[in-house]
Amino acid sequence: MNFQELVKVPFGTKSLDAVLSVPASVKDVQTAVILTHGAGGDMNFKHLVSLAHALTSDGLVCLRFTCKGLNLGYRVKAYNAVRDYLRTLVRFELKNIFFGGRSMGCRAAAALARQLSDVSEHAVQGVICLSFPLHPPGKKHTHLQRSEDLKMLPECVRVLFVSGTEDNMCNRGLFNEVLKDMKADAEVFWLQGGSHGLTVKGMSEDSVMDEVNLKILQWIKKPVD
């Protein structure tokens, strides 16, 4: 049985609401994943809750948090506060930390991963990008600015993108050009028929989430050369 604990993460003079999900046995836990939501919603977005459950069921720790700010710099600072909090939890001997997020949340995750990697190549092992928002709908010209952090991630950081083929915020042709310019070890899981919300016509939401969660778990556990 997995355990969930509501926690308050210190953030300046404020605090961030978060949920710490822990596997039944913490004896051999070495890997943790931090997750956050997009511009709308919160940490209880159904896909994040589903992924957190899948991670802990497989023996990983998951810390997901809410940050309502729409300024990317603010989001990055909040993400860093959550990372700092995770590192203070002495009951875990964590060797691997993965950052993850959905839409704007994964932009913040990638930006922080780049900043930390400038200081230490061991700060973060990988970034999970659910529906990376390469551009707003109909505004493809913004993709250069939004992809800057991705292109600056070093080779030592792994990146998994999970995107729908029908995502109106991630033109596939432009995205493939970004991938060519990335130094990081990037992998893409294209969800056939998937929207920006990772919904697929004719598929139940649970079926989609099961498929996505399995791919993420396989990617995290994949041996690194």
TrEMBL record:
Extent of the signal sequence: none
Name of this protein: KANL3/Tex30 alpha/beta hydrolase-like domain-containing protein
Gene3D superfamilies named in the record: alpha/beta hydrolase
InterPro entries: AB_hydrolase_fold, KANL3/Tex30_Abhydrolase, NSL3/Tex30
Pfam families named among the record's database cross-references: Abhydrolase_11
Superkingdom to which the source organism belongs: Eukaryota
Residues covered by the KANL3/Tex30 alpha/beta hydrolase-like domain: 30-220
